[in-house]
Write the structure tokens for this entry.
Amino acid sequence: MSAPSQPAQRGISGLMNSTIGAKIAMALTGFVLVGFVVQHMVFNLQLFAGPEALNAYAYNLKGLLGGNFVWMGRAFLLACIVLHIMAAMRLSARNRAARPNRYAAGLKTQTTSYAAKFMLGTGIVTLLFLVYHILHFTGGVIEPDNFHILDSEGRHDVWRMVVTSFKNPVVVVTYVVANIALAFHLSHSVTSMFATLGLQSGSYRPLIAKIGPAVATIVLLGNIAMAVSVIAGLIHI
Ligand code: HEM
């Protein structure tokens, strides 16, 4: 006689309870998050174009859909971050449960476990950086004097806020270290994201293997260039 079947779980909790569901949730939310990080870096590069470009961009973005666009984007990003972390916790709990005797584990399992620990470590550094970064540039809680500056048009002077902040070597080191951790995280995760979504087959395989390191390097160089250019005096007020 067969055991009574458990009622099927629906929604997010049902999705997270299967390994493949958690992997797909991780890949889809990761796709949104890496998309945000890339576009954020590209638009922030307007720091090199001067105050008018960056301040006008920030002002126009905040005015989209009567100011609602930014809040909808924030809610969507927050939901993706929460789901991404939930999926990571679920997968790492499942991996631990599937490996009852870690000392008897073979080389492959050890390699997988190093990758998982590495992703966890770089993910935690990125999350801590994000909290600091939002308190810094979005909330104005860190360095409030830099935050409450308006430009000649009466707009939030985002350019001056960022440039003044990056004159501080401690801030620059924090951004460089956090962006290195983010780059390691992206390098591994963007490639595995494509593998999870089934795109790492056949002739695409060599391309997909390179896409993670390529995206990570572009984001790292773009973000670090801004902080380093200010402290090196290439961008100044
Ligand atoms: C040199 C690198 C970076 C610069 C110059 C920068 C700049 C900024 C600025 C100026 C804001 C505030 C925008 C505003 O309120 O007008 C902001 C917000 C934000 N940044 Fe960055 N950022 C950098 C790197 C990053 C990285 C690496 C991440 C992700 C890991 C990130 C994620 C965010 C998020 C989530 C927000 C909040 C967006 C919102 O206001 O809703 N940033 N950033």
Observations:
- DSSP finds nine helices and no strands in the chain.
- Residues 1-7 have pLDDT under 50 and may be disordered.
- The CA atoms of residues 184 and 211 lie 13 Å apart.
